[in-house]
Amino acid sequence: MQNPPPPITSARQLDLDLDPLLSVEPAKPWAADLLRDCARAFADKDSANLHRLLWMLNELASPYGDCEQRLAYAFLQALFCRATASGDHCYSTSLAVAERAVSFASARRLALKFQEAAPWSTFGHVAANGALLQALDGEPALHIVDVSDTFCTQWPTLLEALASRADADAPRVRLTVVSSTAAGVVAEIGARIEKFARLMGVPLEFRAIAAPALPRLADALRPEKLELREGEAVAVNCVGALRRAGCGDSRDSFLRAAAALRPRVLTVVEDEADFGAAGEFMESFEECLRFYGSYFEMLEESFPATCNERLALERECFRSLVGLLACEGGADAVVDGERRERGRQWCRRLERCGFETFGISDDVIDDLKALLKRYRPGWSLLPAEGETSGMYLTWKENPVVWACAWKPK
Amino acid sequence: MQFQNLFNFKNAKEDPQMSATEAISKTFSHSCNPPPPPKKKRNLPGTPDPEAEVIALSPRTLLASNRFVCEICGKGFQRDQNLQLHRRGHNLPWKLRQRGSKESRKRVYVCPEPACVHHNPSRALGDLTGIKKHFCRKHGEKRWKCDKCAKKYAVLSDWKAHVKTCGSREYRCDCGTLFSRRDSFITHRAFCDALAEETARVSAAVFNNITSNMDLKPTSFINVNNGDQVIVEQQQVKQRESRGVNTNSAFNNGDLYGSCSNLQQPEGQLSWAGNSTNNHGDIFSLSTTRTVKGENVFAHGSFPSLFSSLEHNPTLGSDTSATALLQKAAQVGASTIPFLGSLFKEELGGETRDFLGVGMHPSFSGWL
């Protein structure tokens, strides 16, 4: 866009009829169509139209309204950054602010509240823990390498399950967490997990490794860095982690590094979305619309009306969308951590990097079904088919989270 | 001690079937047939009746449910009387089986599974129904599954009992929050502030308790190590490792209080000195775990100054049962250990505690 057009001050100027959209009754979903129009204006480089549409969006969107309005608001941020070419700056600032603001208490509240409201994260935890228990059954010494973004909320239930095994003593467990969360928060998490493990009677050693910068995530998996010991059974747990291992080839190197550890099992949980490379704007846009539309709707239906945790989760989406729609990325920038891939794409990668599927037992499937029963309706389990292995969590028939277990060939 | 004859005449009817298939090892007795006791008395675990007859039934016998079979149509029944009623439908006469003319002898049953703790005649179970349920529960296939929580059971009655209460149970954290879901409760508890405070509270209470009970017997002593690990005399540390883990590494850092926190129970706790009235209630309650594996006891290594007699006792291997160890301790100084009596009561109560502190459960591992 060259010279910015003169500011718009009224709807009449735009020759728009906003009445149907501004009426009070619950309208039919309007955000997706409006957003698509915006995207097309970008693609066509139609600055006048774009300007007009962004103004409209600004009028209708709100971070405190219904999910249509919130979705519109989230995309507005991203599209505005794109229009003003301020995406990279906006993303890194937002990330820095978030990292500074996080505290143990806030992280805990957010993670636990979300787990209460929806199975989005607990689905992956139950699936991964099931696979871990299956693969590590009978081993007296375990070393779990956790590369995840859920603040260790996966581990209490695993520790309890290890402690409750009726036919064996609890094994000795080493938990090495590779995390980019602030060191203070991770230390507090570690202290509490250790205390809890003592309560369970499970000998636990907790250790945190600061995650290296994005494309070098594979460095964290070097044996000397992890201080592997003789006789311990290694497992690698990646929840929302693979997409943070850079892009393209960096993801492969991460997986190859994981395979080199000869783990008994590699558990993978990822959001089911294909955000591709930065280049194809329209395709990415459409996919963002689908995924985040689903996510925002899910948040609205899972949380109570006014909820700070829901706002916090939506704010994280603002940043993700800025990263996906307004940033150049590439060269393994941090923003590439937003570039999710679908399960079938991950499957191809994993097979390429020396892994084969680790079949999980029917008991784990039953556990997952029982888990979903504990939440509001709308969620279900869908086993993957064909060339794709693993399982999906679906929200209103749409697959949203993919979980799968692997072992080295 | 005089063990009374606990033989249950109802079981006697099933003898003829058994004798065809079992391998019997007998320890003969010459009991004198006392009159049937008014109430069944349980032996102390680990101290079976030396005069009892040890019966080893085969897995097939133990799992068989319909053992009384109609010869006409092959229909199976659990009880002889039901079979007889059925036989009347075929116009056959009653034919009650004979009980056998030998005198009543106490019978105890061992589990056929060699790795099982009840395979050893000294840990035999006194009841036929008991051994059948034990075998099915522990070594049988779990064919019944709870719909809500996916927990599996081998014994149908266990499953039924569970399904009645599943989902209705509530879990309360020390911080006061109530949960209907077990997984949420566990995750919450792990990170709850109440957990962090608990250990601090316990350590303070322990110290108060000890210093205020200085009138112990002369044989007792108090040894304060490193300021943070207070080791008191033998009666105190009869804590059982929850989960039976030798947590040497976890405990060597003087984390006595870590273990205490796991034993702290909201109800029915045992008083440390028998009559302490300190405001934190009772600290060293024992939590027998639902696994009741019994083999592993406590981390010897962490309490160097205690139980000098027990620690260096060569007969105590790692697979000595907990109950045997406790009995030894009882021999050593039962008079000075007031709570050991209640400890045994605990054992015999047949109940196990959930170490999470949510309450009592029946002794089988099926609860939620």
UniProtKB/TrEMBL annotation, chain A:
Motif (VHIID): 142-146
Signal peptide limits: none
Keyword Transcription part of the UniProt annotation: yes
Keywords per UniProt: Transcription, Transcription regulation
Pfam families, per the entry: GRAS
UniProt xrefs under InterPro entries: TF_GRAS
Region feature Leucine repeat II (LRII), mapped onto this chain: 188-220
Annotated region described as SAW, given as residue ranges: 326-407
Superkingdom of origin organism: Eukaryota
PROSITE patterns, sorted: GRAS
Family indicated by similarity: Belongs to the GRAS family.
Protein name, as recorded: SHORT-ROOT protein
Species for this entry: Zingiber officinale
Classification lineage: Eukaryota, Viridiplantae, Streptophyta, Embryophyta, Tracheophyta
